[in-house]
Specification:
mainly alpha; 15 helices; 70% helix
């Protein structure tokens, strides 16, 4: 599903360690910390995640006043499949610097993955404004959609689309937010351009079918040819999509759409 596709990793921007930082509490010079970070980055680029993580851990142990190092540790832990450890690192970074945008983005990403949409939206709002990336605004929009605030989600997805106008996932996310705000004609028009693209994939067609069903245009929804989808699966999605209109809560409807579109 396009609304969930933005959660494939933290997508954080790594910072730099300043050579002017004071010595760490461990008594080792910052140059040693920088050396560890550089080695970890190079090893991580080669796919040796476990070894790189150990080096990030050592570098973070040396740092008591540099939030960037803890953000990098959080990124490494998240990449290694340890969201709880990543969250701890991001929170440590925020204790050092509450305005660290990358730490906010990482923490908000984990909150979103854990289903805390309201908490994620609060955390991601300042992060997205500071980072100003497609990924950050898509994550913020996703959190707002799942929190039931379709109007604010539209704004976030619109900012993401302004940064990358050809992004089909962002266009689909915007259309879903519009649909949840009962702007169904706008949502359908937006999806027309998505599915017309030669780059459109199965998830885009499924979301288009769901939006048309929400609009009550069952005939058009049924006529959509979804690549690599058997007729019986398509019929099951249509039957469930028809029931979405009876869900009054925007947040509950967003959750239901997410489950349906991921089948």
């Amino acid at each position: 599903m396009a609304i969930l596709a933005v959660l494939v990793g933290a997508g954080l921007v790594s910072g730099c360690v300043s050579a002017s930082d004071p010595e760490s509490s461990a008594g080792k010079p910052v140059s040693e910390q920088s050396r560890l970070l550089n080695i970890a980055r190079d090893i991580d680029a080669k796919g040796e995640t476990g070894t790189a993580l150990a080096l990030y851990e050592r570098a973070a142990e040396m740092s008591t006043n540099d939030s960037t190092t803890h953000v990098k540790l959080g990124n490494a832990r998240l990449k290694d499949g340890d969201p709880e450890g990543a969250e701890k690192a991001y929170r440590t970074a925020l204790q050092i610097n509450p305005q660290d945008a990358d730490a906010l983005l990482g923490l908000g990403t984990i909150q979103l993955q854990h289903g805390d949409a309201i908490g994620a939206a609060k955390t991601l709002a300042p992060a997205a404004q500071a980072v100003n990336s497609v990924s950050a605004y898509n994550k913020l929009g996703t959190a707002l959609v799942l929190a039931g605030d379709g109007a604010a989600a539209e704004g976030a997805f619109t900012k993401a689309l302004a940064l990358q106008p050809s992004n089909l996932d962002t266009k689909t996310n915007l259309a879903l937010a519009q649909a949840l705000s009962n702007k169904l004609p706008d949502a359908s028009i937006g999806m027309d351009s998505v599915v017309a693209s030669p780059l459109a994939e199965k998830r885009h067609f499924v979301n288009y079918m769901i939006i048309l069903s929400l609009s009550g245009d069952t005939a058009r929804a049924r006529a959509i040819d979804i690549p690599d989808m058997p007729a019986n699966q398509k019929n099951q999605i249509l039957a469930k999509a028809a029931k979405l209109r009876s869900i009054q809560s925007p947040a509950e409807r967003a959750q239901a759409i997410g489950l349906l579109a991921s089948t």
